Amino acid sequence: MKYEQHEAHASTAQRDGDTRDAVVGLLMNRGQATAADIGEALGITTTAVRRHLDNLLEAGDVTVAPPSGLGGRGRGRPAKEFLLTPSGRRRLGQGYDALAVDALRALREFGGDGAVRTFARRRAEQAIGSVSPTESADPVDGAHRIAASLSDAGFSADAREVGNGVQICQHHCPVSEVAAEFPELCEAEISAIEQALGTHVQRLATIANGDRACTTHVPLERVVREQPAKELR
Fold first, then answer.
1. All residues at 6 or more sequence positions from 228 whose CB lies less than 8 Å from its CB, including other chains
2. Which of these, 120, 139, 154, lies nearest to 216 by C-alpha position?
3. Is residue 137 over pLDDT 80?
């Protein structure tokens, strides 16, 4: 009897862990969401979602998003929205951060800053290299192509039209902890996006700086890119 109770408890704990991971995965993809939104997407009750969110809040893996400041929508208080914290993002698998940081420190020590920039450029080109300027003549289509390539590379990205441009949002960054010390990774990524689109873009936010997503603004009208000066050898 005790063995059966133990097995039942273990099975319930496993299901709870799987559901909690699903909540984390959904917040990664959406950026932020209410308990009701999460419940609808996962097919579970809002009460069950709140229980998992309470556990994640206690563990420091999620936090309540600050109010948007948009008042006047219906009666009462707006529903709370939740988003992942840096520790919550680490649940998704960033176990090699320390090793990567050590490797890049060694690369800088023996090869200098230029070696780090070269590594960052090659890595960014691998993530976005399948998109070429001829394929992305339309900025909207190009942004969606880049978002798809970034998602394939593990960045969980999407693109959406906002005002006079398109925003590429990366809801997950597998190297955010590394990029916090080596901003060359973010800089190379922007350069690769500009190269693929053939236009200047603007980075609005980064997960490495504590923002909820890496957001890049792409203007609907092309802006001529300035060619970077060649490094002296």
1. 191
2. 139
3. no
